[in-house]
Amino acid sequence: MFVFKERKDPYKKDISVIPSGGQYEIEVDSTFHLKNIYKRIHDWLDENDYYDAESGKGANFETLFYQITKPNGLMFHHIWWRVLKNPSNTSGKTFQYFMKINFQTVAVSKHETMVKGKKFKTYKGDVIVRIKAYVRVDPEDKWNNHPIIKHFQKVMMNRWLGKEISFHKKQLFAEVTALQRLIKQYMGGHTDVNQPQQWHDEITGV
User: Rounded to the nearest 5°, which phi and psi values hold at 65?
Assistant: First the structure.
């Protein structure tokens, strides 16, 4: 089973593509349509060949859904997605991409919003999306048990696979940056990426 935990020992074989091992964080404190945002991110991942670790091919990304509703009606959510991708022209044996996407809402309440004469059931409050992305080298940890390679893992990482690792870091960084910009624009931010807004008729209701 794939473990979504950064591997640092004996060699750093999970390489964060966001500088300094950080994360993208998109936060909006306003009215938002949770299901449409949720669906748009899900569709983007599916369209870009990401899949869930459980089935090895499907799009059931969710590993946690936690909701608290206070007596005053305010809601708090934690939703975790974990996704994988085998890069183009690879089998996923040497390189694999993975992302950790966490949704959090803080003190949100249900509302109705009018957009161009149409009524949408929405949330109002604070929604945060956090994304971490990694290139995983030797996903199955076969090098650790190989009679020869296990002695040369540092050389494998730094020299023999150096150019390929650099290529995949740039590739995944471009993808996660595109996703981050899409989310920002979809949730009402301003970017130079032309994406549809969250207010549409595909889904209604919170």
Answer: -135, 115
The span from the first CA to the last CA of the chain, in angstroms, equals 33
Sign of CA dihedral 89, 63, 80, 141: negative
Residue 6, judged by CB atoms within 10 A of its CB (0-12, 13-18, 19+), counts as middle
pLDDT at position 100 is 96
Measured distance CA(156)–CA(185) in Å, rounded: 40
Length of the chain: 206
Instruction: For residues 51 and 48, give the distance between their C-alpha atoms in angstroms, rounded to a whole number.
Output: 9
Tokens of 29: 């404190």
Name the more confident of 124 and 202. Answer: 124
Domain ranges in the chain? 14-186
- pTM, whole model, 2 decimals? 0.84
Question: And the tokens for 149?
Answer: 């390679």
What span, in angstroms and rounded, lies between the C-alpha atoms of 206 and 202?
13
For residues 137 and 11, give the distance between their C-alpha atoms in angstroms, rounded to a whole number: 10
